[in-house]
Write a structure and sequence with these properties.
Length: 75
């Protein structure tokens, strides 16, 4: 399964599964990152240490290790 970290810039995806511990999973949900949510990858930093995404009208930067916990499929 593809993770959010694997997505390229301008890729639009749908969340399939969150593989995070309960505290981090709750944080994702508070940002609107939950199963079946649609996200857009805006950019990766130079060393791919963070991934900037758009969730609804909000822009969020996730650490690469956090982005690797979010399974997605392209839409």
């Amino acid at each position: 399964m593809k993770t959010l970290f694997d997505c390229k810039k301008a890729c639009k995806v749908k969340v399939k599964k969150l593989n995070a511990q309960p505290d981090l999973k709750q944080r994702f949900i508070s940002f609107g990152i939950m199963k079946d949510a649609e996200l857009e990858v805006l950019q990766h930093t130079a060393r791919k240490s963070t991934v900037e995404i758009k969730v609804g009208s909000m822009q969020i930067a996730l650490r690469s290790n956090e982005a690797k916990l979010i399974e997605v499929e392209k839409i």
